[in-house]
Amino acid sequence: SQIKEVQFVKSSPRAKDCPKDDKPEFAIVGRSNVGKSSLINSLVRKKELALTSKKPGKTQLINHFLVNKSWYLVDLPGYGFAKAPDAAIMDWSAFTKGYFLNRETLVAVLLLIDASVPPQKIDLDCANWLGRNNIPLTFVFTKCDKVKGGKGTRPDENVRNFQELIDKNYRQQPPWIMTSSVTGFGRDELLLHMSQLRNF
Ligand code: GTP
Ligand code: MG
Fold first, then answer.
1. Where are the domains of the chain?
2. What ipTM goes with this model?
3. What separation in Å is there between the alpha carbon of 171 and the centre of ligand 1?
4. pTM of the full structure
5. Ligand 1: which residues within 6 Å by Cβ?
6. Which of 57, 69, 137, 197 ranks highest by number of CB atoms within 10 Å?
7. pLDDT (tens digit per residue) in 165-185
8. Residue 161 to residue 119: CA distance in whole angstroms
9. Which residues contact 86 (CB under 8 A, 6 or more apart)?
């Protein structure tokens, strides 16, 4: 399940501009500052890789990274920074809707949730939107080094509360993984989880 090589493939302004969907892919989604870039860099053990998506304007793009020449990690624009908070998730989903609903090879969305803060409405909205649309989802809790119990088997209060607050409209309760990009905690579990979902 280890990552041997990663290549940046392209940045796409719309779903229809994405690379040909002939390989399994995972979309990395989450609020701005949740630790998206840090997680990608920690997974691929490259400090600078996700910086390619940090250039001004790139946040509006869908970035494809090819891993081991066989599957894609996809960096999507963060949400939660629009001026009108309630409009933010709608703007964001309008942009990415085409991608989520039409990408045949999407194995799962990795929805990043900051374990060091209480459940945020915008994250619940995002999780529930994905659930309603039957898009396979894994919760990846980030910054677990900052919470008591984040390294243990018993989930922290924020994590438990988040799971209680999401709608029960999933066919199956989404899997969840605790991580820290600072300590590397959860990295191997997440890589193994992704390889099991891909079937190789
Ligand atoms: P945007 O690119 O703005 O959308 O943010 P992002 O989701 O890519 O977050 P980024 O990886 O840039 O991390 C945001 C901040 O959180 C940085 O200061 C990171 O150092 C910090 N951070 C990220 N992951 C962790 C973690 O696992 N633990 C701790 N303690 N800090 C983290
Ligand atoms: Mg980033």
1. 6-198
2. 0.98
3. 31
4. 0.88
5. 30, 32-38, 78, 142-143, 145-146, 180-182
6. 137
7. 887 766 678 999 999 999 999
8. 7
9. none
